[in-house]
Design a protein that fits this description.
single chain; 366 residues; alpha/beta; Rossmann fold; 2 domains; seven-stranded mixed sheet; five-stranded parallel sheet; 12 helices; 43% helix; disordered N terminus
């Protein structure tokens, strides 16, 4: 019943045609919506997710009302600021969707703060982003602090693990996730037994996995890019690891849907929106594949939901650029990643779910 209702609400949201804005000749003016990404290659799936939302809106309006303009942060450090400025002052976008790592998201947020252009983040989980208190900054993905709270509760309070090791690669996002988990554990009265940070320039990942497998512990919590995480888990399982490995789906998927039908991922417990693994996610993946020829990862779903939130705010504002700021935080959506609403800091509200892989099959952790 719930998912039938969700599909109906999502379909209704997409089918509502915007009134649009028109010039003196009665022709529809195109509203440009910006997207800033870490790189075109790494974020192709997110770009396609945002484009699908815009294509749906234009199709259901029977005319081109919206256009996606994408810029990348590729290049020397600081390019993210310049390209965000270009989206606003050269491309004249009404709002910006960001599919960024945490460091570049901070740069984009600084520009949004000064320009008063709404910025909706669909991938950065760094909890410090919302502490800048920019009223027109939001994120439609749960932050590291929220994820850490759920994992700490499951690991220490429910499953009663006492010897937990924490591991990450040396990327900014992974280290921020690890820091949030470590801090949340400490605030809850628990202690991490050991923290390993993998440096790809100084260490061999296979040797690193073997070292980790020899360390006595009840559970492992890990964060890092998908190549690192998948290689690490496969290496641990080959070494006979039977400990549970905790993470989030953000760190497990690359561009494509993650296939859990592999015993190499047994004992994996991860955070993900339940709707992504159930009917709404399946319908979205099939539609996405029909349009782009491949099955997407969760990153595309967050970009799709984020762009639909922006489109909803534009409709709610009566197609006025000034009104988007006032309406975007009040624009709720039942999306592919579940119900979306924001707190007073622009963080996503709501519950998140844990899933476990047992013999190549997924199980919702109750």
């Amino acid at each position: 019943m719930f998912f039938n209702k969700l599909k109906s609400l999502l379909l209704l949201f997409i089918l509502i045609g915007p009134a649009g804005i028109y010039n003196t000749y009665g022709q529809a003016e195109i509203v440009k919506l910006g997207m800033i990404v870490t790189s075109f290659e790494e974020n192709k799936v997110a770009i396609d997710g945002a484009q699908l939302a815009i294509d749906n809106a234009n199709k259901n309006a029977n005319q081109e009302l919206f256009k996606l303009v994408v810029r990348s942060c590729e290049g020397p450090w600081g390019v993210g600021s310049k390209e965000t400025v270009n989206l606003i002052y050269e491309d004249n976008v009404w709002a910006i969707l960001g599919s960024l790592d945490g460091r570049n998201a901070h740069l984009a947020e600084q520009v949004a703060a000064k320009s008063h252009i709404p910025l909706l983040s669909s991938w950065a989980t760094d909890p410090t982003l919302s502490r800048a208190y920019v009223p027109w900054y939001m994120r439609c993905i749960g932050d590291d602090k929220t994820n850490a709270r759920v994992m700490v509760n499951q690991i220490f309070q429910i499953e009663k693990h006492t010897k937990v090791i924490l591991v990450s690669d040396d990327t900014y996002d992974a280290k921020m996730s690890a820091e949030s988990f470590n801090k949340m554990a400490g605030q809850s009265g628990y202690k991490i037994d050991h923290y390993y940070e993998y440096n790809k320039l100084e260490q061999n990942l296979i040797s690193f996995s073997e070292e980790l497998s020899r360390y006595e512990s009840d559970a492992i919590v890990g964060f890092g890019n998908p190549d690192f995480m998948n290689t690490l888990m496969i290496g641990l399982n080959k070494a006979g690891n039977e400990r549970k490995f905790y993470s989030t789906l953000k760190y497990l998927e690359d561009d494509h849907y993650f296939d859990f039908n592999d015993t190499s991922f047994n004992n994996l417990v991860f955070i993900t929106p339940a709707s992504w693994l159930l009917d709404p996610g399946e319908l979205f993946r099939e539609d996405f594949n029909k349009n782009f020829g491949y099955y997407p990862s969760l990153k595309a779903a967050y970009a799709f939901d984020g762009m639909n939130l922006i489109l909803g705010a534009i409709r709610k504002s009566g197609f006025t650029i000034e009104g988007i700021k006032d309406n975007i935080r009040e624009t709720d959506l039942v999306g592919i990643t579940g119900p979306i609403a924001f707190d007073n800091l622009g963080n996503r509200k709501g519950t998140i779910e844990l899933f476990e892989v047992i013999e190549g099959a997924l199980r919702l952790v109750e």
